[in-house]
Amino acid sequence: MEKMDFQSLLDTFGVPLKVYPKQEAGGAYDNMGVWVKKEADEVTALEVSEPFIPSALLSKLPVQGSYRDGGRIEEFEMVWFSSQVVPLKSIVEHDGLQYSVEDSIPYTDYSNVTQYGCKAVSAFVK
After folding, report:
1. What is the pLDDT along the chain (126 residues), one digit of tens a residue?
2. Which of 7, 19, 33, 120 is the most exposed place for a label (fewest CB within 10 A)?
3. How far apart are the first and last CA of the chain?
């Protein structure tokens, strides 16, 4: 069975995004046989134009907000449809706010799209 190609839809409804795929820290053994831990390298952002939609539009739920001692806290949930394959906890940046990729639904068995659930928190001081 041939996979469905949704690239033209992703391009048509896309918005500019910067994606920072999560990288695991690694390491290597030095000349003395001692494990030397390396921090994850600085990740180069992937710049894509793909649909990034507030989940409220899909589920009719409002953006969650509450007041706390330091001010107002807002929680944002977005749905990202992408041809990229990125690990959970990758970062997606849109309009100056960074979102963490928290879940994924791969439709890759029959298309070139994966649906990601992304969350962010923003604090506004009084």
Report:
1. 788 999 999 999 999 999 988 876 666 667 777 777 665 555 678 999 999 998 876 554 445 555 556 555 567 789 999 999 999 999 999 998 899 999 999 999 999 999 999 998 766 544
2. 33
3. 57
In angstroms, the CA 76 to CA 115 distance is 17
Structure tokens, 13: 């409804």
Instruction: Kindly give, in sequence order, each residue whose CB lies less than 8 Å from that of residue 46, ignoring residues fewer than 6 positions away.
Output: 18, 19, 20, 21, 84
Collapsed DSSP state (helix, strand, coil) of residue 57? helix
Calpha distance 106→99 (Å, rounded): 19
* Beta bridge mates, 103: 117
